[in-house]
Protein backbone atom coordinates (compact mmCIF):
# COMPACT_ATOMS: atom_id res chain seq x y z
CA UNK A 1 0.00 0.00 0.00
CA UNK A 2 2.91 2.36 0.69
CA UNK A 3 5.03 1.12 -2.20
CA UNK A 4 4.35 4.12 -4.45
CA UNK A 5 5.03 6.56 -1.60
CA UNK A 6 8.33 4.79 -0.98
CA UNK A 7 9.26 5.35 -4.63
CA UNK A 8 8.59 9.06 -4.25
CA UNK A 9 10.39 9.31 -0.92
CA UNK A 10 13.55 7.56 -2.08
CA UNK A 11 13.53 9.51 -5.36
CA UNK A 12 13.47 12.68 -3.25
CA UNK A 13 16.36 11.44 -1.08
CA UNK A 14 18.48 10.64 -4.14
CA UNK A 15 18.14 14.21 -5.38
CA UNK A 16 19.07 15.59 -1.98
CA UNK A 17 22.16 13.38 -2.07
CA UNK A 18 23.06 14.73 -5.51
CA UNK A 19 22.82 18.31 -4.25
CA UNK A 20 24.98 17.52 -1.24
CA UNK A 21 27.63 15.98 -3.49
CA UNK A 22 27.43 19.09 -5.70
CA UNK A 23 28.12 21.20 -2.60
CA UNK A 24 31.24 19.16 -1.82
CA UNK A 25 32.43 19.60 -5.43
CA UNK A 26 31.87 23.35 -5.15
CA UNK A 27 33.93 23.48 -1.95
CA UNK A 28 36.76 21.46 -3.46
CA UNK A 29 36.78 23.58 -6.62
CA UNK A 30 37.14 26.71 -4.50
CA UNK A 31 39.50 25.14 -2.00
CA UNK A 32 41.49 28.39 -1.67
CA UNK A 33 38.50 30.03 0.01
CA UNK A 34 38.60 27.51 2.87
CA UNK A 35 41.73 29.20 4.12
CA UNK A 36 39.53 31.95 5.53
CA UNK A 37 36.50 29.78 6.30
CA UNK A 38 38.17 26.93 8.19
CA UNK A 39 36.23 23.92 9.41
CA UNK A 40 33.04 25.96 9.67
CA UNK A 41 32.58 25.29 5.95
CA UNK A 42 31.55 21.70 6.73
CA UNK A 43 28.42 23.02 8.44
CA UNK A 44 27.11 24.09 5.05
CA UNK A 45 26.29 20.44 4.35
CA UNK A 46 23.82 20.57 7.23
CA UNK A 47 22.49 24.11 6.86
CA UNK A 48 22.06 23.71 3.11
CA UNK A 49 19.81 20.68 3.54
CA UNK A 50 16.65 22.80 3.74
CA UNK A 51 17.27 24.34 0.35
CA UNK A 52 18.37 20.99 -1.10
CA UNK A 53 15.12 19.48 0.14
CA UNK A 54 13.14 22.35 -1.35
CA UNK A 55 14.74 21.97 -4.78
CA UNK A 56 14.38 18.18 -4.64
CA UNK A 57 10.68 18.69 -3.88
CA UNK A 58 10.17 20.84 -6.96
CA UNK A 59 11.62 17.97 -8.99
CA UNK A 60 9.59 15.39 -7.08
CA UNK A 61 6.10 16.88 -7.50
CA UNK A 62 5.63 15.81 -11.17
CA UNK A 63 6.67 12.28 -10.12
CA UNK A 64 3.98 12.33 -7.41
CA UNK A 65 1.42 13.33 -10.02
CA UNK A 66 2.63 10.52 -12.31
CA UNK A 67 2.22 8.05 -9.45
CA UNK A 68 -1.33 9.23 -8.79
CA UNK A 69 -2.18 8.91 -12.47
CA UNK A 70 -0.63 5.41 -12.54
CA UNK A 71 -3.57 4.19 -10.47
CA UNK A 72 -5.88 4.94 -13.37
CA UNK A 73 -3.76 5.11 -16.52
CA UNK A 74 -1.42 2.20 -17.25
CA UNK A 75 0.94 4.45 -19.23
CA UNK A 76 2.11 6.03 -15.97
CA UNK A 77 2.93 2.60 -14.52
CA UNK A 78 5.70 2.23 -17.06
CA UNK A 79 9.20 2.98 -15.79
CA UNK A 80 10.03 4.64 -19.14
CA UNK A 81 8.06 7.81 -18.35
CA UNK A 82 10.02 8.27 -15.11
CA UNK A 83 13.32 7.62 -16.82
CA UNK A 84 12.57 10.16 -19.58
CA UNK A 85 11.44 12.80 -17.08
CA UNK A 86 14.53 12.32 -14.93
CA UNK A 87 16.83 12.31 -17.96
CA UNK A 88 15.43 15.67 -19.05
CA UNK A 89 15.66 17.22 -15.56
CA UNK A 90 19.27 16.09 -15.16
CA UNK A 91 20.40 18.24 -18.09
CA UNK A 92 19.68 21.74 -16.68
CA UNK A 93 20.56 20.67 -13.12
CA UNK A 94 24.03 19.41 -14.09
CA UNK A 95 24.65 22.39 -16.39
CA UNK A 96 23.84 24.82 -13.58
CA UNK A 97 26.00 22.92 -11.07
CA UNK A 98 28.99 22.84 -13.43
CA UNK A 99 28.64 26.41 -14.72
CA UNK A 100 28.44 27.65 -11.16
CA UNK A 101 32.03 26.56 -10.48
CA UNK A 102 33.84 29.07 -12.74
CA UNK A 103 31.06 31.65 -12.26
CA UNK A 104 31.80 31.94 -8.56
CA UNK A 105 35.53 32.08 -9.17
CA UNK A 106 35.07 34.96 -11.61
CA UNK A 107 32.28 36.96 -9.96
CA UNK A 108 32.23 35.98 -6.30
CA UNK A 109 28.59 34.95 -6.16
CA UNK A 110 26.59 31.81 -6.89
CA UNK A 111 25.17 31.38 -10.37
CA UNK A 112 21.86 33.09 -11.03
CA UNK A 113 20.08 34.23 -14.18
CA UNK A 114 22.59 37.06 -14.80
CA UNK A 115 24.61 35.21 -17.50
CA UNK A 116 21.47 34.72 -19.60
CA UNK A 117 21.53 38.41 -20.54
CA UNK A 118 24.83 37.86 -22.35
CA UNK A 119 23.36 35.20 -24.65
CA UNK A 120 22.07 37.98 -26.91
CA UNK A 121 25.69 38.37 -28.01
CA UNK A 122 27.00 34.79 -28.31
CA UNK A 123 30.37 35.89 -29.66
CA UNK A 124 31.06 37.99 -26.60
CA UNK A 125 29.66 35.29 -24.34
CA UNK A 126 32.05 32.74 -25.87
CA UNK A 127 34.96 35.15 -25.38
CA UNK A 128 34.10 35.27 -21.68
CA UNK A 129 34.35 31.52 -21.24
CA UNK A 130 36.74 30.42 -23.96
CA UNK A 131 39.71 30.57 -21.59
CA UNK A 132 38.05 28.03 -19.33
CA UNK A 133 38.61 24.28 -19.73
CA UNK A 134 35.37 23.99 -21.69
CA UNK A 135 36.32 20.60 -23.14
CA UNK A 136 36.81 19.11 -19.68
CA UNK A 137 33.56 20.65 -18.48
CA UNK A 138 31.77 18.94 -21.36
CA UNK A 139 33.51 15.68 -20.55
CA UNK A 140 32.61 16.12 -16.89
CA UNK A 141 29.00 16.79 -17.81
CA UNK A 142 28.77 13.67 -19.98
CA UNK A 143 30.41 11.46 -17.35
CA UNK A 144 28.26 12.79 -14.51
CA UNK A 145 25.13 12.56 -16.63
CA UNK A 146 25.78 8.93 -17.54
CA UNK A 147 26.55 7.91 -13.96
CA UNK A 148 23.49 9.61 -12.49
CA UNK A 149 21.14 8.58 -15.27
CA UNK A 150 22.18 4.93 -14.93
CA UNK A 151 21.68 5.18 -11.17
CA UNK A 152 18.13 6.42 -11.70
CA UNK A 153 17.48 3.73 -14.32
CA UNK A 154 18.58 1.08 -11.84
CA UNK A 155 16.35 2.61 -9.20
CA UNK A 156 13.25 2.59 -11.41
CA UNK A 157 14.03 -0.92 -12.65
CA UNK A 158 14.01 -2.10 -9.05
CA UNK A 159 10.65 -0.40 -8.49
CA UNK A 160 8.84 -1.84 -11.51
CA UNK A 161 6.49 -3.99 -9.43
CA UNK A 162 5.69 -1.12 -7.09
CA UNK A 163 4.91 1.13 -10.05
CA UNK A 164 2.35 -1.37 -11.33
CA UNK A 165 0.87 -2.11 -7.90
CA UNK A 166 -2.92 -1.68 -7.63
CA UNK A 167 -3.25 -3.09 -4.11
CA UNK A 168 -5.99 -1.21 -2.21
CA UNK A 169 -6.18 1.29 -5.02
CA UNK A 170 -8.33 3.93 -3.31
CA UNK A 171 -6.33 3.85 -0.12
CA UNK A 172 -3.16 4.32 -2.17
CA UNK A 173 -4.82 7.27 -3.89
CA UNK A 174 -5.72 8.90 -0.59
CA UNK A 175 -2.24 8.41 0.85
CA UNK A 176 -0.56 9.69 -2.32
CA UNK A 177 -2.74 12.82 -2.30
CA UNK A 178 -1.89 13.46 1.35
CA UNK A 179 1.81 12.81 0.69
CA UNK A 180 1.82 15.14 -2.32
CA UNK A 181 -0.03 17.88 -0.45
CA UNK A 182 2.48 17.56 2.41
CA UNK A 183 5.27 18.46 0.02
CA UNK A 184 4.35 22.10 0.53
CA UNK A 185 6.35 21.87 3.78
CA UNK A 186 9.79 21.01 2.34
CA UNK A 187 8.95 23.06 -0.76
CA UNK A 188 8.71 26.27 1.29
CA UNK A 189 11.49 25.15 3.64
CA UNK A 190 9.44 24.35 6.72
CA UNK A 191 6.45 25.55 8.70
CA UNK A 192 7.73 29.08 9.35
CA UNK A 193 5.72 32.07 8.21
CA UNK A 194 8.03 33.16 5.39
CA UNK A 195 9.01 30.69 2.64
CA UNK A 196 12.64 29.70 2.28
CA UNK A 197 15.07 32.14 0.72
CA UNK A 198 18.84 32.41 0.52
CA UNK A 199 19.16 33.92 3.97
CA UNK A 200 17.36 30.90 5.44
CA UNK A 201 20.50 28.82 4.99
CA UNK A 202 22.99 31.44 6.13
CA UNK A 203 24.72 30.42 9.35
CA UNK A 204 28.07 32.17 9.58
CA UNK A 205 29.79 35.55 9.60
CA UNK A 206 31.97 34.17 6.80
CA UNK A 207 30.40 34.98 3.44
CA UNK A 208 31.88 32.03 1.53
CA UNK A 209 30.47 29.59 4.10
CA UNK A 210 27.02 31.11 3.66
CA UNK A 211 27.22 31.04 -0.14
CA UNK A 212 28.29 27.39 0.00
CA UNK A 213 25.08 26.52 1.85
CA UNK A 214 22.98 27.80 -1.07
CA UNK A 215 21.61 25.24 -3.49
CA UNK A 216 22.72 26.75 -6.79
CA UNK A 217 19.93 25.14 -8.83
CA UNK A 218 17.33 26.63 -6.48
CA UNK A 219 19.18 29.97 -6.63
CA UNK A 220 19.20 30.00 -10.43
CA UNK A 221 15.51 29.27 -10.90
CA UNK A 222 14.56 31.61 -8.07
CA UNK A 223 16.36 34.48 -9.82
CA UNK A 224 14.42 33.69 -12.99
CA UNK A 225 11.19 34.16 -11.06
CA UNK A 226 12.08 37.61 -9.72
CA UNK A 227 9.78 40.30 -11.03
CA UNK A 228 12.08 43.23 -11.72
CA UNK A 229 9.13 45.27 -13.01
CA UNK A 230 7.65 45.20 -9.53
CA UNK A 231 7.55 48.72 -8.15
CA UNK A 232 7.95 47.54 -4.56
CA UNK A 233 11.42 48.38 -3.33
CA UNK A 234 13.00 45.25 -1.78
CA UNK A 235 15.63 47.40 -0.05
CA UNK A 236 13.40 49.48 2.18
CA UNK A 237 15.33 49.65 5.44
CA UNK A 238 14.29 53.13 6.61
CA UNK A 239 11.12 55.18 6.52
CA UNK A 240 10.95 57.48 3.52
CA UNK A 241 11.48 60.68 5.48
CA UNK A 242 14.63 59.40 7.21
CA UNK A 243 16.10 58.03 3.98
CA UNK A 244 15.53 61.34 2.16
CA UNK A 245 17.03 63.27 5.05
CA UNK A 246 20.20 61.16 4.97
CA UNK A 247 20.47 61.61 1.20
CA UNK A 248 20.15 65.38 1.44
CA UNK A 249 22.92 65.51 4.06
CA UNK A 250 25.23 63.31 1.98
CA UNK A 251 24.86 65.52 -1.10
CA UNK A 252 24.79 68.90 0.69
CA UNK A 253 27.35 71.16 -0.97
CA UNK A 254 27.55 74.93 -1.12
CA UNK A 255 31.31 75.18 -1.24
CA UNK A 256 33.93 76.61 -3.55
CA UNK A 257 35.41 74.44 -6.30
CA UNK A 258 39.16 74.09 -6.56
CA UNK A 259 40.12 74.55 -10.21
CA UNK A 260 42.01 71.77 -11.97
CA UNK A 261 41.56 73.14 -15.50
CA UNK A 262 42.99 76.35 -16.88
CA UNK A 263 40.04 78.74 -16.91
CA UNK A 264 41.44 80.60 -19.93
CA UNK A 265 40.79 77.56 -22.12
CA UNK A 266 37.33 77.71 -23.65
CA UNK A 267 35.77 74.34 -24.39
CA UNK A 268 38.75 72.04 -23.83
CA UNK A 269 38.77 68.66 -25.54
CA UNK A 270 37.92 65.70 -23.32
CA UNK A 271 39.19 62.13 -23.72
CA UNK A 272 37.87 59.50 -21.30
CA UNK A 273 39.60 56.12 -21.20
CA UNK A 274 37.52 53.53 -19.39
CA UNK A 275 40.06 50.81 -18.59
CA UNK A 276 38.72 47.28 -18.27
CA UNK A 277 39.24 45.88 -14.73
CA UNK A 278 41.90 48.38 -13.66
CA UNK A 279 41.90 47.55 -9.97
CA UNK A 280 43.75 49.83 -7.55
CA UNK A 281 45.45 46.70 -6.20
CA UNK A 282 47.88 46.61 -9.14
CA UNK A 283 48.98 50.24 -9.02
CA UNK A 284 52.59 50.47 -7.79
CA UNK A 285 52.53 46.67 -7.38
CA UNK A 286 54.67 43.86 -8.77
CA UNK A 287 53.97 40.36 -10.03
CA UNK A 288 56.93 37.99 -10.20
CA UNK A 289 59.13 41.03 -9.45
CA UNK A 290 57.81 42.85 -12.55
CA UNK A 291 56.00 46.17 -12.19
CA UNK A 292 52.43 45.64 -13.41
CA UNK A 293 51.56 49.19 -14.54
CA UNK A 294 54.85 51.09 -14.98
CA UNK A 295 53.32 53.50 -17.48
CA UNK A 296 50.38 54.47 -15.27
CA UNK A 297 52.69 54.76 -12.25
CA UNK A 298 54.73 57.36 -14.13
CA UNK A 299 51.75 59.20 -15.60
CA UNK A 300 50.12 59.71 -12.21
CA UNK A 301 53.09 61.89 -11.26
CA UNK A 302 52.27 64.17 -14.20
CA UNK A 303 48.61 64.88 -13.54
CA UNK A 304 45.94 64.85 -10.85
CA UNK A 305 45.67 61.42 -9.27
CA UNK A 306 42.57 60.44 -7.29
CA UNK A 307 43.77 57.73 -4.93
CA UNK A 308 40.60 56.75 -3.02
CA UNK A 309 38.00 56.05 -5.71
CA UNK A 310 35.48 53.19 -5.69
CA UNK A 311 33.69 51.58 -8.63
CA UNK A 312 29.92 51.79 -8.43
CA UNK A 313 29.40 48.16 -9.45
CA UNK A 314 31.16 45.00 -10.54
CA UNK A 315 30.41 44.71 -14.27
CA UNK A 316 31.23 46.77 -17.36
CA UNK A 317 27.60 47.62 -18.18
CA UNK A 318 27.25 49.14 -14.70
CA UNK A 319 30.59 50.93 -14.93
CA UNK A 320 29.80 52.64 -18.23
CA UNK A 321 26.56 54.03 -16.79
CA UNK A 322 28.39 55.14 -13.65
CA UNK A 323 31.02 57.02 -15.67
CA UNK A 324 28.86 58.54 -18.40
CA UNK A 325 25.64 59.11 -16.44
CA UNK A 326 26.93 59.49 -12.89
CA UNK A 327 24.33 56.91 -11.90
CA UNK A 328 24.82 54.28 -9.17
CA UNK A 329 24.75 50.55 -9.96
CA UNK A 330 21.84 48.37 -8.91
CA UNK A 331 22.41 45.33 -6.67
CA UNK A 332 20.13 42.85 -8.47
CA UNK A 333 19.97 44.14 -12.03
CA UNK A 334 21.49 46.68 -14.41
CA UNK A 335 19.61 49.66 -15.76
CA UNK A 336 21.00 49.17 -19.27
CA UNK A 337 18.94 45.98 -19.43
CA UNK A 338 15.81 48.13 -19.42
CA UNK A 339 16.25 50.58 -22.32
CA UNK A 340 13.18 52.61 -21.41
CA UNK A 341 14.73 53.35 -18.02
CA UNK A 342 18.27 53.92 -19.30
CA UNK A 343 16.92 56.38 -21.87
CA UNK A 344 15.86 58.71 -19.04
CA UNK A 345 19.35 59.00 -17.56
CA UNK A 346 21.46 62.14 -18.02
CA UNK A 347 24.51 61.49 -20.20
CA UNK A 348 27.84 63.29 -20.38
CA UNK A 349 28.37 62.92 -24.15
CA UNK A 350 24.92 64.41 -24.75
CA UNK A 351 25.84 67.44 -22.62
CA UNK A 352 28.99 67.94 -24.72
CA UNK A 353 27.15 67.30 -27.99
CA UNK A 354 24.73 70.08 -27.06
CA UNK A 355 27.77 72.33 -26.61
CA UNK A 356 28.77 71.53 -30.22
CA UNK A 357 31.48 69.04 -29.34
CA UNK A 358 32.27 66.21 -31.74
CA UNK A 359 31.52 63.01 -29.83
CA UNK A 360 32.96 59.53 -30.48
CA UNK A 361 32.99 56.15 -28.78
CA UNK A 362 35.61 53.44 -29.39
CA UNK A 363 35.49 49.79 -28.38
CA UNK A 364 37.26 46.81 -29.89
CA UNK A 365 34.37 44.44 -29.11
CA UNK A 366 30.68 44.31 -29.96
CA UNK A 367 28.60 47.21 -28.66
CA UNK A 368 25.60 44.90 -28.31
CA UNK A 369 27.32 43.16 -25.41
CA UNK A 370 25.22 43.37 -22.22
CA UNK A 371 22.73 45.54 -24.13
CA UNK A 372 25.08 48.54 -23.94
CA UNK A 373 24.39 49.60 -27.51
CA UNK A 374 20.86 50.80 -26.80
CA UNK A 375 22.22 52.96 -23.97
CA UNK A 376 25.17 54.31 -25.96
CA UNK A 377 23.11 55.13 -29.06
CA UNK A 378 20.97 57.46 -26.96
CA UNK A 379 23.92 58.96 -25.13
CA UNK A 380 24.85 61.68 -27.57
CA UNK A 381 27.72 59.92 -29.34
CA UNK A 382 27.71 60.75 -33.04
CA UNK A 383 30.40 58.32 -34.14
CA UNK A 384 30.97 54.73 -33.06
CA UNK A 385 33.86 52.40 -33.73
CA UNK A 386 33.45 48.76 -32.74
CA UNK A 387 34.57 45.26 -33.71
CA UNK A 388 32.94 45.23 -37.14
CA UNK A 389 34.79 48.42 -38.14
CA UNK A 390 38.17 46.68 -37.99
CA UNK A 391 39.66 44.47 -40.69
CA UNK A 392 39.36 40.75 -40.04
CA UNK A 393 43.14 40.52 -39.62
CA UNK A 394 42.94 43.15 -36.85
CA UNK A 395 40.26 41.32 -34.92
CA UNK A 396 43.04 39.62 -33.03
CA UNK A 397 41.23 39.00 -29.75
CA UNK A 398 38.42 36.61 -28.88
CA UNK A 399 36.50 39.77 -27.98
CA UNK A 400 37.41 41.54 -31.20
CA UNK A 401 40.29 43.97 -31.71
CA UNK A 402 42.97 44.27 -29.03
CA UNK A 403 43.69 47.60 -27.36
CA UNK A 404 46.78 48.25 -29.47
CA UNK A 405 44.73 48.10 -32.68
CA UNK A 406 42.04 50.39 -31.24
CA UNK A 407 44.69 52.83 -30.00
CA UNK A 408 46.05 53.22 -33.54
CA UNK A 409 42.57 53.84 -34.89
CA UNK A 410 41.82 56.56 -32.33
CA UNK A 411 45.15 58.32 -32.92
CA UNK A 412 44.56 58.26 -36.68
CA UNK A 413 41.07 59.72 -36.24
CA UNK A 414 42.15 62.41 -33.76
CA UNK A 415 44.59 63.81 -36.35
CA UNK A 416 41.57 64.74 -38.47
CA UNK A 417 39.12 65.64 -35.68
CA UNK A 418 38.47 69.33 -35.16
CA UNK A 419 38.17 70.72 -31.66
CA UNK A 420 36.32 70.64 -29.39
CA UNK A 421 35.75 66.91 -29.11
CA UNK A 422 34.58 64.43 -26.47
CA UNK A 423 36.04 60.97 -27.08
CA UNK A 424 35.50 57.83 -24.99
CA UNK A 425 37.53 54.63 -25.28
CA UNK A 426 36.47 51.42 -23.53
CA UNK A 427 39.43 49.01 -23.46
CA UNK A 428 39.01 45.22 -23.51
CA UNK A 429 42.32 43.33 -23.46
CA UNK A 430 42.33 42.92 -19.65
CA UNK A 431 38.97 41.14 -19.74
CA UNK A 432 38.85 37.37 -19.37
CA UNK A 433 40.48 35.36 -20.93
CA UNK A 434 43.37 37.82 -20.32
CA UNK A 435 44.96 37.14 -23.67
CA UNK A 436 47.41 39.53 -25.32
CA UNK A 437 48.61 39.77 -28.94
CA UNK A 438 52.25 39.79 -27.80
CA UNK A 439 54.29 37.28 -25.82
CA UNK A 440 53.57 37.43 -22.07
CA UNK A 441 55.80 39.83 -20.20
CA UNK A 442 54.57 38.57 -16.86
CA UNK A 443 54.82 34.82 -17.30
CA UNK A 444 52.70 32.17 -15.60
CA UNK A 445 49.62 30.04 -16.27
CA UNK A 446 47.80 30.98 -13.06
CA UNK A 447 44.92 33.46 -13.19
CA UNK A 448 46.77 36.23 -11.34
CA UNK A 449 49.77 36.11 -13.67
CA UNK A 450 47.58 36.10 -16.78
CA UNK A 451 45.38 38.92 -15.47
CA UNK A 452 48.28 41.14 -14.41
CA UNK A 453 50.05 40.44 -17.71
CA UNK A 454 46.98 41.65 -19.61
CA UNK A 455 46.97 44.82 -17.51
CA UNK A 456 50.68 45.24 -18.22
CA UNK A 457 49.91 45.03 -21.96
CA UNK A 458 47.11 47.61 -21.80
CA UNK A 459 49.30 49.81 -19.60
CA UNK A 460 51.89 49.92 -22.38
CA UNK A 461 49.18 50.70 -24.95
CA UNK A 462 47.55 53.47 -22.89
CA UNK A 463 50.93 54.99 -22.00
CA UNK A 464 51.91 55.07 -25.66
CA UNK A 465 48.53 56.60 -26.53
CA UNK A 466 49.07 59.41 -24.00
CA UNK A 467 52.63 60.04 -25.22
CA UNK A 468 51.45 60.23 -28.83
CA UNK A 469 48.67 62.64 -27.85
CA UNK A 470 51.25 64.87 -26.18
CA UNK A 471 52.85 65.37 -29.59
CA UNK A 472 49.61 66.55 -31.21
CA UNK A 473 48.46 70.20 -31.41
CA UNK A 474 45.23 69.52 -29.52
CA UNK A 475 47.05 68.33 -26.35
CA UNK A 476 47.50 71.81 -24.85
CA UNK A 477 43.70 72.22 -24.86
CA UNK A 478 42.83 68.71 -23.71
CA UNK A 479 41.79 66.88 -20.55
CA UNK A 480 42.45 63.13 -20.63
CA UNK A 481 40.82 61.06 -17.89
CA UNK A 482 41.74 57.44 -17.12
CA UNK A 483 39.30 55.50 -14.95
CA UNK A 484 38.34 51.82 -14.58
CA UNK A 485 34.96 50.35 -15.47
CA UNK A 486 35.14 48.27 -12.26
CA UNK A 487 37.64 46.67 -9.92
CA UNK A 488 38.56 42.99 -9.80
CA UNK A 489 38.79 40.04 -7.43
CA UNK A 490 42.37 39.49 -8.55
CA UNK A 491 44.94 39.73 -7.14
CA UNK A 492 43.17 38.29 -4.11
CA UNK A 493 42.87 40.44 -1.02
CA UNK A 494 41.77 39.60 2.51
CA UNK A 495 39.22 42.42 2.32
CA UNK A 496 36.35 42.42 -0.16
CA UNK A 497 36.34 46.21 -0.23
CA UNK A 498 39.67 46.18 -2.08
CA UNK A 499 37.90 44.52 -5.02
CA UNK A 500 35.95 47.76 -5.62
CA UNK A 501 38.81 50.23 -5.31
CA UNK A 502 39.91 51.77 -8.61
CA UNK A 503 42.27 54.58 -9.67
CA UNK A 504 41.32 57.76 -11.51
CA UNK A 505 43.85 60.01 -13.22
CA UNK A 506 43.44 63.38 -14.97
CA UNK A 507 46.10 64.38 -17.49
CA UNK A 508 46.41 66.90 -20.29
CA UNK A 509 47.76 70.29 -21.28
CA UNK A 510 44.55 71.98 -20.11
CA UNK A 511 45.30 71.15 -16.46
CA UNK A 512 46.42 74.00 -14.27
CA UNK A 513 47.71 71.58 -11.60
CA UNK A 514 50.11 68.66 -12.03
CA UNK A 515 51.73 66.16 -9.74
CA UNK A 516 48.79 66.40 -7.34
CA UNK A 517 47.18 63.53 -5.38
CA UNK A 518 43.57 63.86 -4.19
CA UNK A 519 42.82 61.44 -1.36
CA UNK A 520 39.16 62.32 -0.78
CA UNK A 521 36.98 59.22 -0.69
CA UNK A 522 34.81 59.37 -3.80
CA UNK A 523 33.02 57.26 -6.38
CA UNK A 524 33.18 56.54 -10.06
CA UNK A 525 29.78 58.27 -10.35
CA UNK A 526 31.33 61.55 -9.15
CA UNK A 527 33.30 61.99 -12.37
CA UNK A 528 30.33 63.55 -14.20
CA UNK A 529 29.57 66.41 -11.82
CA UNK A 530 33.26 67.01 -11.04
CA UNK A 531 34.13 67.38 -14.73
CA UNK A 532 31.14 69.58 -15.56
CA UNK A 533 31.85 71.78 -12.54
CA UNK A 534 35.42 72.26 -13.74
CA UNK A 535 34.13 73.31 -17.16
CA UNK A 536 31.39 75.49 -15.63
CA UNK A 537 28.71 73.50 -17.43
CA UNK A 538 25.30 72.77 -15.94
CA UNK A 539 25.36 69.54 -13.92
CA UNK A 540 21.93 69.68 -12.27
CA UNK A 541 20.71 66.59 -14.14
CA UNK A 542 23.45 64.46 -12.54
CA UNK A 543 21.78 64.37 -9.14
CA UNK A 544 23.56 61.18 -7.98
CA UNK A 545 27.00 62.58 -8.73
CA UNK A 546 28.88 65.00 -6.44
CA UNK A 547 31.67 67.50 -7.04
CA UNK A 548 34.85 65.99 -5.59
CA UNK A 549 36.74 69.29 -5.84
CA UNK A 550 34.27 71.32 -3.78
CA UNK A 551 35.66 72.18 -0.36
CA UNK A 552 32.24 71.41 1.17
CA UNK A 553 31.63 68.11 -0.63
CA UNK A 554 31.22 65.11 1.66
CA UNK A 555 33.90 62.43 1.37
CA UNK A 556 32.17 59.08 0.82
CA UNK A 557 31.49 56.33 -1.71
CA UNK A 558 28.73 53.78 -2.23
CA UNK A 559 28.93 50.61 -4.32
CA UNK A 560 26.71 47.60 -4.92
CA UNK A 561 27.18 44.03 -6.07
CA UNK A 562 24.99 40.97 -6.46
CA UNK A 563 22.45 41.54 -3.67
CA UNK A 564 24.75 43.54 -1.44
CA UNK A 565 26.28 46.99 -1.04
CA UNK A 566 29.13 48.84 0.59
CA UNK A 567 29.47 52.31 2.06
CA UNK A 568 32.81 54.02 2.68
CA UNK A 569 33.87 57.14 4.48
CA UNK A 570 37.51 57.91 5.04
CA UNK A 571 38.98 55.41 7.52
CA UNK A 572 35.68 53.54 8.06
CA UNK A 573 33.44 51.35 5.96
CA UNK A 574 31.03 48.43 5.98
CA UNK A 575 29.74 45.93 3.43
CA UNK A 576 26.18 44.69 3.83
CA UNK A 577 24.61 41.45 2.62
CA UNK A 578 20.98 42.02 1.58
CA UNK A 579 20.24 38.30 1.66
CA UNK A 580 21.42 37.61 5.17
CA UNK A 581 20.48 41.15 6.29
CA UNK A 582 23.82 41.42 8.01
CA UNK A 583 27.17 43.19 7.84
CA UNK A 584 29.66 40.92 6.12
CA UNK A 585 32.73 43.14 6.50
CA UNK A 586 33.55 46.36 8.33
CA UNK A 587 36.40 48.39 9.74
CA UNK A 588 36.79 51.08 12.39
CA UNK A 589 33.13 52.05 12.67
CA UNK A 590 33.23 55.09 14.92
CA UNK A 591 30.04 56.65 13.57
CA UNK A 592 26.88 54.69 14.39
CA UNK A 593 24.99 56.54 11.61
CA UNK A 594 27.26 55.01 8.97
CA UNK A 595 24.93 52.02 8.52
CA UNK A 596 21.95 54.33 8.10
CA UNK A 597 23.72 56.36 5.42
CA UNK A 598 24.54 53.27 3.39
CA UNK A 599 21.05 51.84 3.69
CA UNK A 600 19.55 55.17 2.70
CA UNK A 601 21.68 55.26 -0.44
CA UNK A 602 20.71 51.75 -1.49
CA UNK A 603 17.04 52.32 -0.72
CA UNK A 604 16.78 55.68 -2.46
CA UNK A 605 18.93 54.81 -5.49
CA UNK A 606 16.99 51.61 -6.17
CA UNK A 607 13.75 53.49 -5.62
CA UNK A 608 14.92 55.95 -8.27
CA UNK A 609 15.65 53.06 -10.61
CA UNK A 610 12.16 51.61 -10.06
CA UNK A 611 10.56 54.97 -10.71
CA UNK A 612 12.21 55.58 -14.07
Structure description:
The protein is an alpha/beta fold and 612 residues long. It folds into two domains: 3-225, no CATH class; 265-551, Alkaline Phosphatase, subunit A, CATH 3.40.720. 43% of the residues lie in helices and 12% in strands. It has 22 helices and 15 strands. It has helices at residues 3-29, 34-37, 44-47, 49-69, 79-107, 122-129, 134-158, 160-164, 169-182, 184-187, 207-213, 216-225, 240-251, 294-299, 316-325, 339-342, 348-354, 372-377, 403-414, 447-470, 527-534, 594-611, and strands at residues 269-275, 286-287, 290-291, 304-310, 358-363, 383-385, 421-426, 478-484, 501-507, 516-518, 522-523, 556-561, 564-569, 572-577, 582-587. The strands form three sheets. Strands 1, 4, 5, 6, 7, 8, 9, 10 and 11 form a nine-stranded mixed β-sheet that branches. A four-stranded antiparallel β-sheet has the order 12-13-14-15, covered by helices on one side. The protein has a two-stranded antiparallel ribbon with strand order 2-3. Strand 13 and strand 14 form a beta hairpin. Helix 13 packs across helix 22 and helix 19 (403-414) packs parallel to helix 20 (447-470). The longest helix is centred in the N-terminal third of the chain and has 29 residues, at 79-107. It starts with a helix and ends with a helix. The model has no long low-confidence stretch (mean pLDDT 91).
